[in-house]
Here is the input.
Amino acid sequence: MTSNIMAVYKINDQAVHVEESGNPNRQIALLIHGWSSSSYALSPLMEMLSKRFRCMAVDLPGYGKSPKFAGKTTIPAYADLLAGLIEQVAEGPVVLIGHSMGGMISLTLTERYPMLVDRTVLICPTITGKLSNYINLFVSPITAAERFKVGQIISGWVSNAVVGITDRIMRPASFAQRTVITEDEYVRLRSDARQPNQGTVRAECYRAMRENDLSGRLGNIETPSLVIWGAEDNTVPLRDSGVVADEWPEAELRILPKAGHWPHFERPDATKRLIASFLGLPILRGNLHVSSNDDSLAQIEEAAAFLAHSDLGSNLNLTQRKRLASQCTRRIFKVGETIVKVSDRGNEMFIIQDGTVDVWADPDSPGENTSNMRQVATLRPGQITGEMALFDEGTRSANLVAGANGAVVLVLHRDQMQDLCEADPTLGTRVLWNMSRAISLRVRFIQWQNRNRTSGSNTEETIRMFVPPAKLFEGLSAD
Here is the structure.
């Protein structure tokens, strides 16, 4: 894992400061903070997530070190900006981790650009945009006054003069009565909320949230999502969780006692366990461990945890993932070692569990071994490849080679897949659906990427390399 670094990205002339950590070759987890906050707001999750992802915690325009938008601040404007960031830095769909207003931004981004988002984790997300009565009575009048210069001066003077009083007013809105947040963490969060020259953006965001009511829109979101709420949240009221329960039953909704608006600071272990389970991170054992005993129960449990965040295991419960994991075998490849050749006939699909797998092919002659072979893609943990060979037992469409750090892959044989479908038709159907979704999401991302870039690989060639048209439908009817 790399140490945290600060980077600045330009999206349509808008500078965005980002704190990054984790392996830069892994899938991106984009962390989005909320109102009157900064990238620090999600810092308790960075170390854990960096074990699996390239973490990018943004300072939204107007907060932290990022300059304000030149125009009006709105939730869709934030979503469009972050979509531009994803398009600039990502090689595939990302994971969104959004807190408070950042949760509303995450949902808006997912609604507008579903092809960019693999899954979302939402912590006390703003849904209706109507904050608690406490916020509306005690905080919103100050926020409204800050829209004007004189109001900013008065607000800043009052805050500096009676910091203790304002903190006593704000604390019940943010934290549970039995909160365990440390004093250092509390001071840092409050300092973010007191940043000078943010009065205008705070007021604009307060209005922007109310103008972006997500009621009636959640049912359109199909992206797998985890929603965590503090039971004593007095900023974004729990009544918003009722909207989630009514309109979005597919989302996993979890409510934590002894937590307010900051459960990842107040109940860090419980919050991390929920997120780790949802994303397939075996937090109790640390990093994924490769054992030489493929039949061990520990390996099956480890693989089941990993499959929670993979193309194949999405929306499967733990029991289903354990059953799927028991059908897989694990293979370890050294750096540069060939996994399969383009000329090989196959009946196995590969799920990358650790390391990377490089894809070598001739985009002009997919499925053929020519002198024009070149590296055309890199597959990362959670992705699948070889699904067509699993279906039709045909030749491969590319060479697969273990990447710069080697590769650990879970292998699912055609016979094992058939056994799974016969033994558990419900599970088999879900696995086949996940395979179809992975192919679709991959193709749609490439199409979107090529429409928005002035240069780059030809869409048709790229798609042909990943999914040879002749193979796409061969064998499906045979199964």
